[in-house]
Amino acid sequence: MPLEDGDSARWRGQRVNGEVSSTPQLGGMGDPPPRSMPAPDGSRTEAMAEGWEPGPALGDGDVTPGGAPQRAGQEPGQREEALMAELSELVQKVVKSSSWWDRHGVDISILTCSFLLLPAGFLCLRSAEAVPFLVGVLTLGVVHHTLTVKGSHLASHNALTESKSWGKVWAIFFIELCSAFTAEQATYNHVKIHHGYTNVIGLGDSSTWKLPFLKRAIYMFIAPLAVPIITPLVALDLLRNVEWKAALRTLCCMFLGLYCHYWLLLRVSGFQSPWSALLCMLLTRSLLAHPYIHVNIFQHIGLPMFAADRKPKRIHLMSLGVLNLPRNALLDWSFGHSLISCHVEHHLFPSLSDNMCLKIKPIVSQYLKQKKLPYNEDTYASRLQLFLQRYEELMVHAPPITELVGIQ
């Protein structure tokens, strides 16, 4: 995906009805900000959110972590921009030398295979035997999360195609029809806010995933089962912030997607009662809800948090506030590399597909380590243990603002 000078303007932040929405987004897309809190310097989110040309400016209040070595004759901000420009050039060479198959084909093939598995999943549910029935549940559950998490995430970043028109079509299909969410709000909250202000308190700090009134065991292991129910309800609330034409389109797509799933369970899978079909819908749609919620909090909460007027430049913001988890076959397929093992790479270059994030991972990790910048990595089990032990500190109380002095 070649870089263009006009890409940054394409992704400048836009507010919805003059304010930033506050309702949690549960469609696999990231974190919206608190109610009525305007994005600082909202018109200058720049390419940070999506276009990743070298040296994006993040605002006048940006500072450089103290102690970082500086080249002679360079201001701190200039050095940060030079680092990002150098890394972008290295990544750009890999992208330009990559084929369409690497840039888009691999991920499109995964999504296509998921579609092709749908008939087998619904037919397996016809069986009265336990094993085929469970195979059907597992198949539909994995397919659902592949389409709603991986598909929606890639579509929100227009990473499935280089055509803006087709990108809009895929966003509506994956986010609204498959995920029962609103495409405009999902894209705005995730791309403009979460990516534009990663770990900036009150904006992109993942705080909307916190439910402090829930006990740790309930939040970590029971509440995720409600994600399929909460998602469309949240979407309906967010429709107040979009134009009536978009709201009507979203309602139609949401109803069509949910009803098709219900109808296929009755007509193809042979469920005899509406309640048994609805229960099966809930089961398949919540199959991977636990790792979905866990991944969203593991990779940002507990890492350095910043005030809006004291955030570091882009390369430090992303290297400090983002964490990679290890490769996992199931989650790599269902969620995509950019949400699991290449999350740092994704936040630095969000318009790249999952496969391209995996391809540039050695370059990014080597470069950050060479420049003595953070490259956060941890295991799923380690993060789970950390959150269970420090749940009150990380998920109930407000996160402390990180002091930049001394951070390399």
Notes on the structure:
55% of the residues lie in helices and 1% in strands. The protein is mainly alpha-helical. The protein is globular and about 70 Å long.
In a few lines, what is going on in this structure?
By secondary structure, the chain is an all-alpha fold. It has 17 helices and 2 strands.
Beta-strand content estimate: under 5%
The largest sheet is: 2 strands, parallel
Shape type = globular
Count up the helices. 17
How would you state the average pLDDT, rounded?
84
- The percent of residues in helical segments reads 40-55%
> Which structural category do the helix and sheet elements fall into?
mainly alpha
Could you give the order of strands across the largest sheet?
1-2
How many β-strands, per DSSP?
A: 2
Gap from first CA to last CA: 31 Å
Q: H/E element string?
A: HHHHHHHHHHHHEHHHEHH
Oligomeric status of the shown chains? single chain
Radius of gyration equals 21 Å
List its salient traits:
17 helices; single chain; 408 residues; two-stranded parallel sheet
List the topology elements.
Layout: H1 7-10, H2 76-97, H3 100-124, H4 130-156, H5 164-178, H6 183-194, H7 216-222, H8 227-238, H9 244-267, H10 274-285, H11 289-298, H12 314-321, E1 323-324, H13 329-334, H14 343-348, H15 354-370, E2 376-377, H16 380-389, H17 391-396
Parallel strand pairs: 1-2
Helix pairs in contact: 2-15, 3-4, 3-15, 4-5, 4-10, 5-9, 9-10
